[in-house]
Each structure stands twice: as C-alpha cells, then as structure tokens.
Amino acid sequence: MDRKAKNLVYALILSLVFSFLFVLPSLALDIPVRVLVYRGKEFTISGRILSLYIRGDKIQEVKNLCRVAVKLDTVSIVLDIVDDLQNTEKLQIDYRSILEITGSDISINGIVYRGGFRIINRNNSMLVINIVPLEEYLYGVVPSEMPYYWHQEALKTQAVLARTYTLNRIKSGVGKDYDLENTENSQVYKGKSAEYSSTTDAVNSTKGEVIYYENVIANVYFHSTCGGHTESPKNVWSVKSPPYLNGVECQYCKDSPWSEWERRIKREQWDEFIKDSNIELEINSSGRLSRLNGIEGTKIRSIFKLPSTFIVGIEVRENEVIVKGKGYGHGVGVCQWGTKKMAEVGFSYRDIISYYLPGVTVDAYRGF
Ligand SMILES: [Zn+2]
How far is Cα of residue 229 from the mean position of the Cα atoms in its chain? Predict the structure, then answer.
C-alpha cells in the first residue's frame, strides 16, 4: 500500500472512531421512555396522518385517520374511527387487543404529545402509554415541574434532575407496562402542549447530562421548598440514604410562598386522631417531625394534609389546633425554590446540583 492509500485508511479509521464516539451518546439518548398518560374506559385520540395498528385475535392496520374515539365495555373495545375524508367506521375488537398509534401531533383528550402510543387493557382499564424519545419527553417535563420564566440555570438544574430520574425509572421499569406516570407519583408531564422555548433550551443545552455518584447514576429527588434544611430519604420512606442525600442546610428558599405556613385544624378532626391533649413531639436531625404522640410525622402530614413535616409549633385551642411549619414537600434532594434563588445570585446549574447533592458529578450519559 502506498503512503497516500495508507493515509486514506488512517483517515477512514479515525473518522469511524470519531463518528462512533459522537453518535453513541446521542443514540443512547434516543432511548424510548414509556409514560402512562391516561387510565380509564373512554378517551379520544386525534392528530395528523394517524395510523392505527391493532394486535388482537387478528392483526389489522387502519391508515389515514384523523380521529378515533375509544371505549372499553365489558367484552370488547369499541372504536369510532373518522378518516381524513371524514368517513366514519365502527370497529368492535377483542378486549385483550393491543393498539399502537403513530402519526404526528397526536393528542389524547385534547393534550398534544410527541412520539407514539401503545394502548393496553389492564384490570378492565385502558392504559394509554406515550412512547417518546428521552430528550423530547423532558421538553414536556421541565415546564410542568418548574415555572418556565424562572432563571435559565434553575431550568437547567431541573432538566438534569429530570433526565437522571427518568433514566433510573427506565432501568427499574424493565418488564413493566410503563416506566413513569405523568403525575407527581413520578414527575409531572403535560406533553407538547406544555412546552416553552426557555425550558426546551434548558433541555438542549444540557443534552445527555446526568448526575453520577461513584460512576453509578444517582438517585435524585426534588421538592418545592425545604424550609431551611433538606431531608434524608431514610426519614421519609425508611430507605437507606446514600451520602449525597443526607441533607444540607438551605438559606435560599426564603422567597417561597411556602417558606412559612400556618394550618388551622378543627378540634374535633384533630381529636379523632390525636387522643391525648398533651402533645409530645420528636424532632429528627433535619428539624422535622419524626413522631407526634407516637404517630409518625409523615402520617401526621398526610392525615391533616400539611404542606410538610417541618413543624415549628402546635397550639391546641378550644375549637381548633393551629399548626405552624416551614417548607412544602418531602424535603429530600434538591430544593426548587432554593435553586431559583441560587441561580439568580449567580450559581451555575452544576454548582446548584453539587450544593444540594454533595459529592455527585454531572457527566455525559454513559450507560447505567
Ligand atoms: Zn430550601
């Protein structure tokens, strides 16, 4: 081989190596996410150039649709189909059928999503599952979890947290019908309908960035307002806490409307659960209520619908009980109102993540 040919081969090998290096991470980020967006017996799908693929007792494909009304009854799934020429057709199919929908700007009950859908029947309910590439899913999560007009570094913090959280859910979702729900049970996701350019910019400018701790994707959590100190997950869910979630002091969430709060509870409602008028509080290391007269703080929070377990005072009056507290949410991980303030005073999203989750690194996604 002469020198010219050799150089050509080297160049070819180098370009292959480089394209591999650059293509690999973006391939990884095209990972499909499966999000449950609706559970029920009746819903409407509409969109452009829809195709419906039915896997049931027989396989059928219906093309060029613009609208399908789906209804589950006791023995079958009834589909009222409207095609792009406004012709209508009614199909009755086996209740165990799986429906797959592709097309563009697909909406479910009026909410537009990216990606496609899989629809399955589980326990006499239809599950509508949006299947969407990870980064496009995040476009719909960030504005649903944080106001779009907050500082760009705060939005970037939320984007990296949401991406990290999602990858962990994909990992644990193997073998299940879906990876995440579209509510606070996982993280809020309102599809393409919720997108804003500021939040999309935050996703794009942190593309592929994930939070790691000792080379493993970190378990991340976030909440609205910590109230002065973040909480350890062992106090909330009785699970072992990794070192980066032990809790840190936070002086940044004082602008939150939930910085301090007061709840008035009717005395009779209080007495129903708290039999003794002597109140005994046990406070944990983050300053939150671990027990009240032996009842767990998290239970007290859910019984009386308190914003948090960060209780600073309880006053029992004749007709009512006044509970005073700080913060909103479970308090674990990143404090969103604290993030807002840190961003405004000049910290970068990487600084903010390192502050709330000490010891972690933000790195390009490199597998689980
Ligand atoms: Zn805070």
Answer: 23
Residue 22 lies in a domain: no
CA 57/CA 54 separation, integer angstroms: 9
pTM value?
0.88
DSSP state of 245: G
Domain range for 123: 32-135
Q: Are residues 281 and 317 in the same domain?
A: yes
Burial of residue 305, with CB atoms counted within 10 A of its CB: 0-12 exposed, 13-18 middle, 19 or more buried: exposed
pLDDT at position 12:
46
| Last residue in a domain, options 115, 135, 155 | 135
How far does residue 131's CA lie from ligand 1's centre (Å)? 34
What's the 133 CA to ligand 1 centre distance in angstroms? 32
Closest CA to 97 of 117, 116, 120, 80: 120
pLDDT of residue 278: 87
Q: What is the CATH number of the domain that holds 67?
A: 2.60.200
Taking the centre of ligand 1 as the mean of its atom positions, its distance from the CA of residue 339, in whole angstroms, is 8
Q: How far is CA 43 from CA 52, 104, 302, in A?
A: 15, 18, 32
CA of 136 to the centre of ligand 1 (A): 29
- The verdict on 303 and 277 lying in the same domain is yes
For residue 355, report the distance from its CA to the centre of ligand 1, in Å: 11
Does residue 130 sit in the same domain as residue 39? Answer: yes
pLDDT of residue 19: 45
Residues of the chain scoring pLDDT < 50: 8, 12-27
Instruction: Tell me how many domains the chain contains.
Output: 3
